[in-house]
Amino acid sequence: MAKCGAVCGKALFRVGQILITWGFVCVVVSMLTAYWVVRPAIDFSQEGINPNETKVTKNYGIFRACRQDASFSSSRSGKSKGKCGSLWDNLNYISANTARYIQFVMVVACIMYVCGLVLEIVQVLPIRKYRNFLAQNRVVEIFSSIATVLVLKGMLIFAGEIRNKAERVSGQDIEETGWSFIIAVIGLTSCVGGVMLTTMFRHLPRRVTGEKGGSWLKSDHRA
Length: 223
Prior knowledge:
By secondary structure, this protein is α+β, with helices and mostly antiparallel strands. It has a single domain (24-205), classed as Butyryl-CoA Dehydrogenase, subunit A, domain 3. 57% of the residues lie in helices and 12% in strands. It is built from eight helices and eight strands, in the order αβαββαβααααβαβββ. The chain has helices at residues 2-32, 44-47, 72-75, 87-90, 96-122, 128-136, 139-163, 179-201, and strands spanning 37-38, 57-60, 64-68, 81-86, 176-177, 204-205, 211-213, 221-222. A five-stranded antiparallel sheet has the order 4-3-2-1-5. A three-stranded antiparallel sheet has the order 6-7-8. Helix 7 (139-163) packs antiparallel against helix 8 (179-201). The protein is elongated and about 70 Å long.
């Protein structure tokens, strides 16, 4: 029974590592794409909008916003791509400082995720001193937890200060949540689950040489 518990604990710990890695990948993908919010395409002539005077945003994300192509009103295909650039250049009535702050928070979160993953790899190397120190002090869990909180903070500020306050032109009263935001939510959820599993099931080194201690949810196991 004890052996089965040890195997299950190790398996769940590996699952936690995979979830953190997968969550990090999802967060990066969501940041690099501009489909957090998607707005319906409109007919400029029908709505009486001059695209040279009014910014008509079709979709945007953390770093980029894309305008609707003015040729849509004539082509009616909706497939032509408009100009993409920074949020404050292609999205009306938002604070550039707020947008930059969200971007900064997200970048810091990704850096901390990378640091956590690198330190997790270090623990695999045959360097007992550093491996034990990193595991015993929960360094990976600390980095991953802070990064996860930062991602959540960035998403909340984005929803409250960017999506809710950005101007929409006539015909864009209804906007949809894009696939980039959904991926970000999946990544955030994966990271939360991964941090919980790695925290609960990591083997912790003990003071006595040659012994390993389990976390608070596991009994101790001899090396």
